[in-house]
Amino acid sequence: MLDLLLDINVVEGPFLIAVYVLAATVFVYLLGRSVGWSWVLAVIVLLIVGAIIGVALVWIAVNLLDLFGGPVNEETWFWVPAAFAGIALAIWNLWRSRWWRKLIAVLAVPLFAATAALGINAAYGLNPTLGSMLHISTADPIPVPTPDPADATDPLEPLYATWTPPAGMPERGRIGTVEGGVPNTVSGFPARPAQLYLPPAALVEEAPRLPLVIMMMGQPGDPDASFIGGVLDRFAADHDGLAPIALVVDQLGDPANDPLCLDTELGQVETYLMQDVVPWAKQHLDVLQGRTYTTVAGYSNGGGCAAYFGAKYPEVFGNLLAVSPVEYAGAERPDEVLREIFNGDQAAYDAVKPATIMAAKAPYTDTTAVVTVGADDGAFRPAAERLAEAAGAAGMTTTFFEVPGADHDAGALEGGLEEGFRVLYPRFGLAAP
After folding, report:
1. Which end of the chain, N or C, is surrounded by fewer C-beta atoms within 10 Å?
2. Residue 363, preceding peptide bond in cis (omega within 30° of 0)
3. Alpha helix positions (H), 60-202
4. Which residue has the higher pLDDT, 277 or 180?
C-alpha cells in the first residue's frame, strides 16, 4: 500500500490536477470572506505583500544562500510568490471568522505550500513520483548473476552484425536496485543504493556482453535509473534489444550534500567510483571490458563528475557523456570551496577542474565526448560550451548539442541522453556506422 502511494505520478495526471483544483477552490473560498471595496482593497494588499515576501525569499535563497546550486526556473519565481500570497490571505482569514473558516484557513497554509512544491517539481520533471520527491526508492532489487570469466574477451565483430534476438525476448529492459549493493570496501563512502538498468538483450539466456555506462544524477537527487532506462529502452526497440547496461551510482551520500566527486574531508567519492564501483561493475556485470565500451555519464552535478572522471581516467573511460554539466567541482560556490576544501590554494583547486586536466593530458587519441545542455538553460549553457571547447581542443572527438526547448529539466536530461547514445551507438558496435 505504501509503495502504491509513493509511486503516484506527481508531474502529470489526475493527482496533480486534483491538488491544483483543491488549492484553487480553497483560494476562492478564502477570497469570499467578505464583500465591499474595503475587502477588495485588503485582498489586493495581502496578495501583493505575500507575493513580495515570496519573491524576496527566492532571491535570498538563490543569490545569497545558494540553496539550489544555481539559478532556478521561471516556474519557481511564479509558484513561491503565489504560495505566499495565498498564505497571507489564509492568515488574514483567521481573524474575526467562524471556526470552520479558521480551520480551512489553517489547512490552506500547508496546502498552498505543497501545491507550490508540486508545481515546481512538475516544471522540472526530475522527480516523477511522490517517492522520488521524498528521496524514497520503491525499486525492487535485481539479482546480479556472475558473468562467465571464460567469456571475457571482447568480440572482434560488432554486436549489431552478429546478434540475433531470441524468441521471447522481453520488449523492455528492467530497472531495480543492485541486490546486495555495490560494496564500498575501499572508500568507505556512504553511498545510497545504486540502480541498475538491464536492457532486453541482457534478460535472455546466453545474453551477450554489452557496453557499460556508469552514470550519476544531479544534486539534490538520487541514483535513479528510470530516465536513462527509458531512453535506452527506446534505442533497444530499434536495435534488436541491444543497449548498454547502465549502473546509476550515488556520488552525494545525501541529497543535501555535494562532496565534489573528489577525495576530501567531505567523502572519498573518487576512490568510491574508481576503486569500488568500476572494478565491481567490470567483475559482476556482463559487460564488455574495453575502454571503447565503457562510458562515464552524468546530469548536472553528475555531469560535472562525468567530465572530471572522463578527463582524468581515459585509460578506463573511452567515452564521457556530460548532460547539462556544472563546469567543475563547486562551480556554484567557488570561493567557499577554495577556502574550506583547498585552504586557499588556487593552483590545487584549478588542478581538479576538467578543462585543466584535459589540457594537461592532451592529446586524447581515442576518447569520445558528448556535452549537451538545454537550449533555454542560460545558467548552465556557458559552462557546457566551455567544457565542449576544452574537450575538442584536447583532441577528444567532441559533440556539443543544445536540446531544443529545454531548460535545466527532465527535457534536457532525456534529450541529452538521446543525443549521447545516438553518437555512441555506432562506437559501441550496437549500430552500423
Report:
1. N
2. yes
3. 74-92, 99-124, 130-133, 159-162
4. 277
Q: Which residues pair with 350 in a beta bridge?
A: none
Q: Is 267 helix (H, G, I), strand (E, B) or coil?
A: strand
Q: What is this structure's pTM?
A: 0.90
Weakest mean pLDDT among 97-111, 146-160, 399-413: 146-160
The answer to whether the beta carbons of residues 205 and 55 sit under 8 Å apart is: no
Strand arrangement of the beta sheet that strand 141-142 belongs to:
141-142, 174-178, 195-198, 245-249, 212-216, 294-299, 319-323, 368-374, 397-403
Which among 67, 80, 417 is positioned nearest to 256, based on CA atoms?
A: 67
Determine the Cα–Cα distance for residues 136 and 260; give it in Å rounded to an integer. 23
Cell numbers that stand for 208 in this block? 551477450
Residue (of 433, 431, 432) closest to 236 by Cα position = 431
Domain architecture of the chain: domains with CATH? 2-124 (no CATH), 141-428 (3.40.50.1820)
The amino acid present at 158, given as its one-letter code, is P
Residue burial 314-335, b: 16+ Cβ < 10 Å; e: rest: bebbbbbbbbbbbbbbbbbebe
Instruction: Report the sign of the C-alpha dihedral through residues 421, 425, 428, 433, in that order.
Output: negative
Interval 164-222: pLDDT, tens: 999 999 999 999 998 878 999 999 999 999 999 999 999 998 899 999 999 999 988 89
Nearest alpha-carbon partner for 173 in 225, 224, 248? 225
